[in-house]
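Quick entry, no commentary yet.
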Amino acid sequence: ALLFFAGCAQKNEIKYYLLGANSIERGEVKKSGAVTVDSVSYLSGDKIWYLKDGLFLPYKNSFFAKTPKEFVAESLQTIGIDEKITVKITDAYQIYEGDKSSFALSVTISVGEGVLRKVKNYKVRKGELGIGAKEAAKGFEMCVLELVERAKNDFISLR
């Protein structure tokens, strides 16, 4: 019994990282049409993934407070396009580089339907981050903010 209770005392605290609290303007922003986000299977939950020394793993006790799909969908609502927006997240993970890290995000965005549909692939990488899940969450948020700006510029300029 003593070993059992000692093991329970050794568990690390579970941490959830809230994204987007202050970074996306929520004021007088024209909302977009329907935004549908899909992702590869490893990104369907709230786990924070990282690549270190050739191993691709999720953090054990750290999670996003929103799934990547939810955060990307909410963020893309702010670009102000009336047409249907379809997003596929193909990669989102932290990359360890010695005592620093970066975060990589890859998505495909299509706007509209049928023959008028416009499709664009995005690869965003933010570096100069520290180590740990908190830095991964920060990097993910930075990547999504850049993605929103790039998508806004790309798709609004096509109008």
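second:
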Amino acid sequence: MGEKRKLNFSIGIFDDISDSIIEKIKNESKNCEIYGVGVYSDKIVIEEYFTYPMKNLEERMDNVKQIEGVDFVFPVDTIDIEEMKKIVQQECVKFLGNKM
């Protein structure tokens, strides 16, 4: 068995959180020290995924925070991979700063 990853994360809409999503997050979070979840903004959901979320961003983020194994949750307002990487890094640093 290899060493645990320091950080892992997932990003999604999380409007309707199925059992399989919960299971995936629980399993991934067990294999790392810190697990974050990015939740797409309403604007991204509408403009990029052509659907309207049933719940607003705050509600979706609150629901994700309740999942076992999630250390921090953050909004994502881009689909650009490089921008997402920066957001994940910033949010992880913020999370670690709040723990001290």
